[in-house]
């Protein structure tokens, strides 16, 4: 009987932690960075970016890099790395970071938290 209660409690704990993980509350800095990076990426894709946006890009990316799971989710959703590369190619083609960033953007991660997205078919 005690093991049944112990296993039931463990299952409830896992369910609760899973729920809280999905509903986690982010700091205002992360929310702002998330929103503004979406906007900056959209502006790059629409051709409305400006060279003066570099400081914003760098500070917002630095904030998101403190939260790698959210950074990976945002990259998966909107192609954040590719957007930053396009921005640098357009406004700062001589930037020394560009080759490494191009390489990273060319190989987009297919997972967030180790969960694979996309093709779940047989690998035969």
Features:
single chain, 124 residues, mainly alpha, two-stranded antiparallel ribbon, 6 helices, 2 strands, 68% helix, 3% strand, elongated
How many domains make up the coordinates?
1
Proportion of β residues? under 5%
Task: Please give the count of helices.
Answer: 6
Low-confidence residue ranges: none
Structural class: mainly alpha
Distance between the termini: 46 Å
**What is the general shape?**
elongated
Please provide a written account of the structure:
The chain is elongated and about 70 Å long. It has helices at 2-22, 28-46, 54-65, 68-78, 80-91, 98-106, and strands at residues 111-112, 115-116. The protein has 124 residues and is mainly alpha-helical. It has a two-stranded antiparallel ribbon. The chain has one domain. α2 crosses α5 (80-91) and α4 packs across α5. The mean pLDDT is 83.
Structural topology:
Elements: H1 2-22, H2 28-46, H3 54-65, H4 68-78, H5 80-91, H6 98-106, E1 111-112, E2 115-116
Antiparallel strand pairs: 1-2
Helix pairs in contact: 2-3, 2-5, 4-5, 5-6
């Amino acid at each position: 009987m005690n093991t049944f209660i112990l296993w039931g409690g463990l299952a409830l704990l896992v369910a609760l932690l899973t729920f809280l993980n999905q509903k986690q509350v982010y700091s205002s800095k992360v929310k702002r960075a998330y929103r503004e990076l979406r906007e900056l990426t959209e502006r790059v894709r629409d051709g409305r970016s400006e060279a003066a946006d570099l400081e914003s890009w760098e500070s917002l990316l630095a904030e998101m890099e403190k939260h790698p799971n959210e950074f990976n989710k945002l990259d998966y959703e909107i192609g954040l790395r590719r957007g930053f590369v396009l921005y640098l190619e357009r406004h700062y083609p001589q930037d020394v970071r560009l080759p490494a960033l191009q390489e990273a953007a060319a190989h987009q991660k297919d997972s967030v938290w180790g969960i694979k997205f996309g093709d779940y078919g047989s690998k035969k």
